[in-house]
User: Fold these one by one.
Assistant:
Number 1:
Amino acid sequence: MRMFKETSLIFSRQLDRVETLGRYTIVRRYGKMVGLLALLAIAIVFPLVFSNSEETGIALFALIFAAAVTGWNIFSGYTGYISLGHAAYFGTGAYALAIICQVWNVPAGYTPFLFVPVAGLVAAVLAVPVGWIALRVRRHTFVVITIAIFFIFQLLAINLTEQYTTTGSLNLPIPVDWTGDFYNIPFYYASLILLLVAIAISWWVRNSKYGLGLLAIRDDEDRALGLGVKTVPSKLAAFVISAFIVGMAGAIWAYYVFVIYPPTAFDATFDVAFVLMAFLGGVGTISGPILGALLLESTQQYFTSVLTQNGGYYLIAYGALFLAVILLLPRGIIPTLSERWARYQVSRHQSLQEHDAIVTALPTPDGVAENVERKEGINL
Amino acid sequence: MSLLDAQGISKSFGGIHALDTCSISVEQGTITGLIGPNGSGKTTLFNVMTGYERVDSGQVRFKEQAITNAPPDKVFRLGIGRTFQLTRIFPRLTVLENMHVAVQRNSLKGLFSRWSSAHEQKSALELLDFVGLTSLKNLPAGNLSYGQKKLLEFAFVLIAEPQVILLDEPAGGINPTMINYLTERIRTLNQRGVTFLIVEHNMEFVMGLCDKVMVMHRGAKIAEGSPAEVRANPTVLEAYLGD
């Protein structure tokens, strides 16, 4: 038995080596890349295939939310600080673009899209003092404070816009040239570009040393601090980056709906939606929030348009779906599936090892000695 | 030369005086043991020296430089590493990712460097090999056994090459084979110039490993000397066996 354990250890090390160099990794890596390119191609040709405005409308809402939730995830998913107030930056982005368009007389058409990053920056700048205050507390207290700050933003939207409007509502320019089914197309691609930007930022952060610091904060903030991670600036930077992306999503949304009110732009259901979407797909992963948003937002839009005629049953269907997912996949789709996949791989490796153990020659004495020493460290 | 100094430290929580004008001094290149009955203030002293607690009065110095009340990240970057009594690792990160947390850059630079850069990857793998966790490198650290977590915490503190390491009960709750393994690793590092301050209840471990032992009781140091001297000291026996 002991002998078997030692040999299997050696084989697992050999497999390790194969994994870093071999065909398996190459297939996996390129397979992944091909898969991602295929998804991108599907996203690009989607409006050409499903061209009627109802379908593209659903799709572009799904993309806007996917981008916003990806932004939310960069802060809340990576650091573990759950924000229930990110709709504040969605609304800020929306109002910023509306005010920019009014003040600078931005004409309808493609020009407003150029100001989307500016609107995002406005949200990011406002997030600096907010984050600085809110991030002094942790966990439940932090959640409550983000909710409170959200409502402050909503009230400010009513009160600070007095010079532009009496009710807090604002109009954005309407691109009258875009007629029929074409109307949604520019919005669709603008949202897709925003989503790609958000994914790129999320991926970049996740693979950087800075991002590893954020994940360490999520797991044990004080321990991370004791290992030299500058936790306060790190958290604040993540908060601001995420507000920037959510703000841009809000800006595109505002241009699409063209009339915004404080309760629609600063919508508390968006707060909840971001969290639900991220948890559905898998919080803290790169792909999870995107998947969650695409699934949830499109089903919601679909139910709204199809089931409303039958008298509001869509809400029940929506709730039932969500309940089922929470009960069956509590950790989110992506982590659950990837764990199953890993388990399948392990079981395949084990049967491979048993096969190899028969055909391969006995290990060198050197290898055995090395593993006996290793065993001391491991199996305790 | 004294590397790490605590002079006249007092710290109280409510009405309890956890530290009462406590002074200790750790010489460079030694393995110093810190023992004492439960509640004598050993862990509080660690917390004060590593920036996790603020002092009420007194001074902490590292290489003649005052570091009193400096935040934990600064203390660590100066070269003082520590482990915790209740081992603290990052359970949802993989073992290898855990190893990289302590090699931080300042925030902005950290955004533009991959956590898995080749050079750091190499030293992380060497250290994992040093503590015997190489084959577990891709597992989530939360899946490790208690002893393995202790070794991991030890290893990820080492990666930043601290000059002095404070170990809080490294031998607590792990089996004798592993204790020997740990002892040997500490000796190796000490020969390479790393200074150790170790809080431990396992007397065999302390007496076998340390050059010098300090004894704390009721928030102050009551004795100091070689393991043999401390063992023969009547004050120490009294502290342990009660008044």
Note: Chain B has a mean pLDDT of 85.
Number 2:
Amino acid sequence: MASEIKQGTLELVNHLPILQVITPMLIAPILVVLNNKTLSWLLSFVGALACLFISILLIQAVSDGSILTYYLGGWVPPIGIEYRIDAVSAILLFLISIISAIVLIFSYSSLHAEIPEEKHTLFYSCFLLCLTGLLGVVATADIFNVFVFLEISSLSTYVLVAQGAFLDRRALSASFNYLIMGTIGATFFVIGIGYIYMATGSLNMMDIAERVNQFGDNRTIQAGFAFIVVGMGLKLAMVPLHVWLPNAYTFAPTVVTCFLAATATKVALYVLIRFVFSVFNYEDIFVNELFFLLLMPLAVIAMIAASVIAIFKQNLKKLLAYSSLAQIGYMLLGLSLMSQKGLASSLVHMVNHGFTKAALFMSLGAFMLNTKNVYIKSLSGLGKSMPFTSAAFVIGGLSLIGVPGTAGFISKWLLLEAALETGYWLVAILIIASSLFAVIYVWKIIEVLYFSESSESYNEVSVLTLMPIWILALFCIFLGINTSLTVDVAIMATEILFK
Amino acid sequence: MKHHLILKVITKFMVGVIVLFGLYVQFHGDYSPGGGFQAGVIIAAAFILYGIVMGLENVQKVMPIWFAQKAAALGVLVYALTGVFSIIFGFEFLNYHAISPEHPKHGQHYGIILVELGVGITVTFVMIAIYYSFAGRTPRLDDKEW
């Protein structure tokens, strides 16, 4: 036991990795016990702000390339569970925390329109549990712990998606679909963990990484890796395994859609990156071939096909959901290039797309407060009656396309550079083609917003609703101009991963 | 189920025994097979049995829905606060040495009892809540249909 040396000597600062995860976990049951809906919102918001504060402290602590470790219960790994924060996880923790805080501001006004009031307490409780799960997946360095947190977040996500049923009963079947697919994914993932444990006898990532190197070509480990790739492929909606995503995003309450679109799939992708680089050997031929032969074609198909499908969708939430699939394609592509720049582009795109998609879904949510649905026809002329929301939507749309000056440009540029650097110029052309499709579907919406006459006139939404939307929209611009927070940290993160 | 006299009498007798056995499993969990999860399921089984035989209304008089919900959350709190207790005293989260720094072994013992208690409470009431939400949905069977 480690604590014999440092008994009772830990300062609060040493506890940051665990505080990041348990802050929302502690608040969730308190909400249920208190059972007061205004207080629930306030406490969740305070909790999310605390998480954000902690994640900023963590980014500062790891920005010089150092790694924070934390032994749960004082048990030294590989026996005990270890929490390990490096630059890669710090970016993700920051993304998840800030999105949750912004989304909670929005939920104050939008939740009343979508969910009956007596459910609000339980909703916020579930939301915090989901947050706990996502943060935990990123913070931990124990592969079984990853599975546990992944399930905490997924199970609460199924509940959150089903809450859309008060507006549209189809949310129930969407949630059930997601439940089945997500559970299959989790099962594959845990089978993979089982194989790895069988071969190496360890669950700690660093420990496994050492042992895997000694094995060389081992079928058990390769099978485990394949299972994990498929399991995570389901969770992150890799293209043939994506069928749960469009409906889940379409019928979930806006708050949930924003939060999931910005965080959940990214966390699954993070797990995949973690496994490739920190657990397995990325130079291994098997890993490389799997990524080159399997993931890269799938990523390209996702980029093109999902963008084309998005063009024809009339329900805007569904349109954006398909566009999310395409963006996940970009991230997977960056990863499958297996180069430092490719991975950096993947990480930066996670953050940039998180803000972009959250801004877009949230402004759709604001439209929905007035129009009650998000079919493209009902948005006609809203550019005049809801100028601020529409302007935010346009900024998000530009960032989605990747117009210079917005966040989307930075990550797409990095991805293009990475593709050209590694010699996949055909892939680079396809990236541009996919961006052109994005121009089409974003323009389709902008045209309806600004260049068609409206039959009804609506009032602009309240300032409290506009605030979170504009925070996100400004982030889309800020991250397009100032890249020190994303690109610099991501490049440093990739240096840690490609050690 | 008015005429199932034997079932009712036996149930009334068994409920106490089941809860007692549940508590035994709960508090011996740290040095014999068992623990919070198993104990929680056993104790919940007592309530579920009572509900099946005496009817949903009667068991909900003993154990209202709101209580099951809040108690389930309280169990999680007991677990989490045990961990926070260690943090406050300068140990790692869930390091039970904090409970009795002079006698680390005792600390470990008390710590695991507390944590298992939290698990037990949560599992008990979650099981009951699950039973309630399933039982509350189905159309009630009439006595004639038996």
Note: The beta strands of chain A are 68-71, 82-85.
